[in-house]
């Protein structure tokens, strides 16, 4: 890149740098973002298709989870990376609606591209989009209805709809998993200042291939993926008394090099005897508390294991810190950082501690915790790929149910909310006037991508479906009309129980608008990496997405 100044060439960037200016930069970004949105569009809804992603080392992921697809796709173009960021934010904030957010953003940019071609300035489009986004969020509040932790049936429907697009979330499996998820979320939900908060870390998800998805269980307690350390220790303990220790039951090595001179067999015997006594004393301190189950975050010496077994104490070693914290919350035990501090007050309780063999691997189940504020969902399914998709479905459902509880509001699904918002934005555009109204209308059209995609995946004519939905929503009683993908008809979503958290929709609209605004403001792309700027275009290579792996 160089500039001519009074006949003299001035170099600004190193040789091999590339630069895309003005309208070309906008066209490139829009094309790439729209290509990303199109790549995951077909995964939307219960009739959505799956994607098979193969990494450069041959690992296979089969899913229709938007966030997973974008993460595994290994995109290179900067605009594509921004689209991946939308999915990540949506996933972190609300746990569901990633595909919707990316689709709306891609379509906002495509519509903006059409307006740019009509010589409408990017600033005018951004201003219109800002007004439309605020109006959409405000309207979302108006069309939503209340939900509380007592509305178990309603929450189960929300969980069921969130899992609907996953291959495991079909038929009776979907309803069965929805019940588990609602039980788990309501168990850990805490009320603060009249609002509910759900800490997802308190819901542990363990998965194991083998069995059927219907074998998935909710444990009112914690599942620790470790085994009881000694064969002589009891494998099933009823009404256990549990201690949690964050200290090693081993003789610590000295930090500085120490030399011990032993000149006779007696001295050797005394030295070994001293070590054994120290370990025996450690076990005695644990036994004094009356505990019969020990979870240790660090190592347990073989001699200590022997003495623990003689005392009838079952022990598990090298337990993860996160599992120790969950055990503390579930059993009421407090984690001791030193054996000297141990007393009866730090002992926790549970209904049962049992080691079970699952698919040939030993796991320790801590179940029946009375006031468990930490639970575990143990996911089972026939193969590794199915169990992973089951885990993703459950995570989406947990995100949806906790969003509904935290926000306390739900809207109807099936594209009905988007069409209603779109209708209100068309009306709002006429009130605004000026060039901004064209951008508000474009925003309204972009929202229609959700019902349009659902109609396509159900085998309906997308244009007929949108026209029909628009006319139904003009009627006062038509606010809840949406696409029933199972019957390929337009139905009342409220009557069908197709409900989604308002928070998921709100986050999707806001994330989509923010990303579109960010990309529209770019009019100069400079790459200083010594290689050409990756270009993407309609039917192009999507700016180096996936490097040919997918």
Fourth-tier CATH superfamily name of the largest domain: GroEL-like equatorial domain
How far the N terminus sits from the C terminus, by CA atoms, comes to 34 Å
**What number is the mean pLDDT?**
84
- Domain unit count: 3
Total beta strand runs: 25
Summarize this structure briefly.
By secondary structure, this protein is an alpha+beta fold. Helices cover 47% and strands 18% of the residues.
Model description:
With 550 residues, the chain is an alpha+beta fold. 47% of the residues lie in helices and 18% in strands. The protein folds into three domains: 15-146 and 412-523, Orthogonal Bundle (GROEL, domain 1), CATH 1.10.560; 152-220 and 377-407, TCP-1-like chaperonin intermediate domain (GROEL, domain 2); 222-371, GroEL (3-Layer(bba) Sandwich). Strands 13, 14, 15, 16 and 17 form a five-stranded mixed beta sheet that branches. Strands 11-19-18-12 form a four-stranded antiparallel beta sheet. α6 packs across α7. The longest helix is centred in the middle third of the chain and has 24 residues, at 265-288. The protein is elongated, with a radius of gyration of 29 Å.
């Amino acid at each position: 890149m160089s500039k001519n100044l009074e006949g003299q060439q001035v170099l600004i960037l190193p040789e091999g740098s590339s630069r895309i200016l003005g309208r070309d930069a906008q066209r490139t970004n829009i094309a790439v973002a729209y290509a990303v949105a199109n790549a995951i569009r077909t995964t939307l809804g219960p009739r959505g298709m799956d994607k098979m992603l193969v990494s450069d080392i041959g690992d296979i992921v089969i899913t229709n989870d938007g966030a997973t697809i974008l993460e595994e796709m290994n995109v290179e173009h900067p605009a594509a990376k921004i689209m991946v960021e939308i999915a990540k934010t949506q996933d972190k904030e609300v746990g569901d609606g990633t595909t919707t957010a990316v689709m709306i953003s891609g379509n906002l940019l495509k519509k903006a591209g059409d307006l740019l071609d009509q010589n409408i300035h990017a600033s005018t489009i951004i201003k219109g989009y800002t007004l439309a986004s605020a109006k959409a969020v405000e309207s979302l509040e108006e069309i939503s209805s209340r939900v509380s932790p007592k509305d178990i049936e309603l929450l189960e429907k929300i969980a069921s709809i969130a899992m609907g697009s996953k291959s495991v979330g079909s038929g009776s499996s979907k309803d069965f998993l929805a019940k588990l998820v609602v039980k788990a979320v309501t168990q850990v939900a805490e009320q603060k200042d009249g609002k509910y908060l759900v800490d997802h870390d308190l819901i542990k998800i363990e998965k194991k291939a083998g069995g059927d998805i219907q074998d998935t269980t909710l444990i009112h307690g914690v599942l620790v993926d470790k085994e009881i350390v000694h064969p002589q220790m009891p494998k099933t303990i009823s009404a256990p008394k549990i201690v949690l220790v964050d200290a090693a039951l081993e003789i610590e090595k000295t930090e500085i090099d120490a030399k011990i001179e032993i000149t006779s067999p007696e001295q050797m015997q005394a030295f070994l005897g001293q070590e054994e006594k120290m370990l025996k004393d450690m076990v005695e301190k644990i036994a004094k508390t009356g505990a019969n189950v020990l979870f240790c975050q660090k190592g347990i010496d073989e001699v200590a294991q022997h003495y623990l077994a003689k005392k009838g104490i079952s022990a598990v070693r090298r337990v993860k810190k996160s599992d120790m914290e969950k055990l503390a919350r579930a059993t009421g035990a407090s984690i001791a950082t030193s054996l000297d501090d141990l007393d009866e007050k730090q002992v926790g309780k549970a209904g049962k501690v049992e080691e079970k063999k699952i698919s040939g691997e030993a796991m320790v189940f801590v179940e029946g915790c009375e006031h468990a504020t930490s639970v575990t969902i143990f996911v089972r399914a026939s193969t590794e790929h199915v169990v992973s998709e089951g885990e993703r479905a459950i995570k989406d459902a947990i995100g949806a149910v906790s969003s509904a509880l935290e926000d306390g509001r739900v809207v109807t699904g099936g594209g009905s909310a988007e069409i209603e918002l779109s209708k209100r934005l068309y009306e709002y555009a006429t009130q605004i006037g000026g060039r901004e109204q064209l951008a508000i209308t474009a925003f309204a059209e972009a929202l229609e991508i959700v019902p349009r995609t659902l109609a396509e995946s159900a085998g309906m004519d997308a244009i007929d479906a949108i026209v029909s939905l628009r006319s139904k929503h003009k009627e006062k009683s038509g606010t809840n009309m949406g696409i029933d993908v199972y019957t390929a008809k337009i139905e009342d979503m409220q009557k069908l129980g197709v409900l989604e958290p308002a928070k998921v929709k709100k986050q999707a609209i806001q994330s989509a608008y923010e990303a579109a605004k960010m990309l529209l403001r770019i009019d100069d792309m400079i790459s200083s990496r010594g290689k050409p700027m990756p270009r993407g275009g309609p039917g192009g290579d999507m700016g180096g997405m996936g490097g040919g792996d997918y």
